Queue: 4 jobs
Job 1
Amino acid sequence: MAMLDRRASHYDTALVLGGGASGAAAARLLLANGSRVVLVDRQPLDGDPAMAGLRDMGVDVRLGCSELPAGAFAAAIVSPGIPASSPWVRSLEARGIPVMAELELGWRHCRSRVLAVTGSNGKSTMVKLCAES
């Protein structure tokens, strides 16, 4: 897998996989930071006002895709609903395009302190406890 510069927060060209809420948010964040953004989704999502809004902002939105666009991308952002084993993700890795999760992109742009809680049990209780401390 291609490695990303952990300090990088700007990418000349970025590909966003997934047009759901997190993919749209990733596209807006990248665009706001000066990236040229291409967003792809397998679903047509025609008439989705969020996709129309992204197009109006300058995002190259491609819906109903069966294949990824050709070309070089500085990074690819993968929405949570797309598994790491997806043919799209494997294709990007084979092309040498650095891949990161949408959460990673958000973390890189976050300027506040971050507390991450993981695990299968007790996350809500732990977050509540930390918030009240």
Job 2
Amino acid sequence: QEHWEAVKEQLSGDPDILAVTASKRAPGGRLLDDPGFEIQLDGEWRNQPFSMPHNRVDLDFFRTYGIPMVAGRDFSEAHVTDLTDAVILNETAVRKLGKDPAELIGAPMRFGNDTWRVIGVCRDFHYESLHNPIIPVMTYVRPPGHFTTISMRVSGRNRASVMAHIQHVWQEFQPGVAPSVRYLDDRVRELYQNEERTMAIL
């Protein structure tokens, strides 16, 4: 974690690794963090109007996963405050707040001991299984100590050499500890093993 920027740079050195990011939660997993929030709408503060899990990410999370913004903007190194007080909500969160996406841009939020502001609204996507409806999610940038997962978007070519490159970089920074590397396709497929078994039986 203390060498995250160097790890990210070296992983990106392989031409078949197209983007690299890190996060506390990644698609295919569970959204479990919900420390609460307040948001100011129409000049009034609303305290925890509904449950909304948080995800802590690196600046490149949405770009790596190819998730577009429907209003506002993505996190950017060009905005220093994005590292400390910027929040991106998903479309479901905006609908539950009774607003259009553009209306939420700039809205103040409070959670923890700090005040934040909404800079963007991302298109809805499934973090969890399709068995579960999409729920409101807020995303913000945190230091590497909050991350549990590195995500890489790869070209799909030269898989063996890509895996060898990942192993090499990992051993440089974490010698003697084998990384757990999985394709998102496999991670998602595991969510539907019961359906696959049922189809096989049918």
Job 3
Amino acid sequence: VTLSADYYMAVYETTQKQFCRYNEWHRSHPNNMRATDGCAYGPEYDTYPVNRMYVTDFRGANKGMGWPANHEVDDESWIGQLRATTGLDFDLPTEAQWEFACRAGTTTAWCDGEDAKGKPNEHVFGFGALGYFANYNGVPLKAAGILQPNGYGLYDMMGNVAEMCLDWAGDYSTDGSIAFDPKGAAKPDPFDVSSAQVICRGGRCHGVGDLLRSASRVKAKVQEMNEEIGFRLVCPAIAK
């Protein structure tokens, strides 16, 4: 895979406080199941990753579903409002952008440079330092940025919440060709928001250790409410 353009990636998974900049859902709807069923909410959880959100919440259900033909978002969506406020082209990462940032120059199975077989918690380095997951200590969701960052200074690329990517769920090409700026599978046709799936990366706090591999990929519905799914932002590099 070749990525032709530089980009910035958020140091942290998007937090509840950041999400509440444009959407007060978690604080203003404490009796709504999307905010309370397995999901911590309220100002005391400002630094926790936002979760139980739909892709349509932060990209929109109309223009925001146009990937890979374009990367437009609905004006009223969370990312739409962020773009309008900052003038910057924020979005979810493609799967390729996510994996490049996660690996941080490594080519091993795990982004700490470890390539040993077995469960991550059996490794000498130990993934208790890089990410939360059930095989290690069974911890629930935690605040972003508590553990060690990867080699690029990015926190929680492993564990905590799984992170949604732009790519629709689909298999990789098997023809061995070089992919330039891959955009993933084609948009589902006919498109059905209730069943369409996107790729998530990074494992999750309640998942098994094998899902923390840099190359591990899972699927999630566009409108799936899950306490273990969140997102992280990217932005094209700009001249300083």
Job 4
Amino acid sequence: MLVTGSSGFVGHWMLQHLRAEGDEVLTLPDHLDIRDRKALAEAVSASAPEGVIHLAAQASVGSSWEQAATTFEINALGTLHLLDAAGAEPSRPRVVLVSSAEVYGRLEPDDLPVGEDRGFAPVSPYAASKAAAEVLGAQAWLGRGLEVMRARPFNHTGPGQRADFVVPALARQVVLAARQGATELLTGNLDVRRDITDVRDVVRAYRCLLVGGEPGSAYNVCRGASVRIEDVARRLLELAGVEVPIVVDPARVRPVDQPDLRGDPRRLAEATGWIPTIELDRTLSDVVAYWEAQ
């Protein structure tokens, strides 16, 4: 199986899971840029994979506001190149195209939990790039018969995630507060709620989709329950034994922020039998331990 984006946070756990399952794991050269159509096609051809899990992306919603063109080039154009390369292979590999729940856009309470049949309404450049990638994936199946399954992960985290994502950003601050005596914990919007799944459960879902997903279908990858970011911050403080006030930093508040983002995971469960197995408290504890070890 070929994994793009294997050097990233999710890629690390994806490789570990595939190897534990006894799969032969293939990766792209470290220097390869998926915007380079010719180089990507040559690398895919050399790999001759039976399946592809496409993780390579510009994955930061916040960064996409300042880097919209680059985000689109990597996430949409890079996906087009990957699908073209896979479609040209005699083996016609199955492809799991990793999108994002951000494609759903702003949701009202009555829309939750959101299902896969809801249309796209992207509010960030990142979300728009992922919606475009999904359309390309759907076209590859409908127009060329390439077996593409689209995964829509909701928030996911775990040990090793960069500190520009919400849970590791908070955990890193908490650990520094414990060591250096910081007087406050700076956060973005505390009132938003997010459906957070452990990355180790998420990579299991991607493999399940590669093996048992229905081509052309989209699948939410989520827990099906959301938690307030303020509650996450307070639990991280408790786990680290730190008592400092939580302060909203205007610079960390996004221009547009969905109040609640909670998905319906039933389609994935029905198709593959996947359910999340790692409780959020263990995830938070493991993230704190990761930062304590840095």
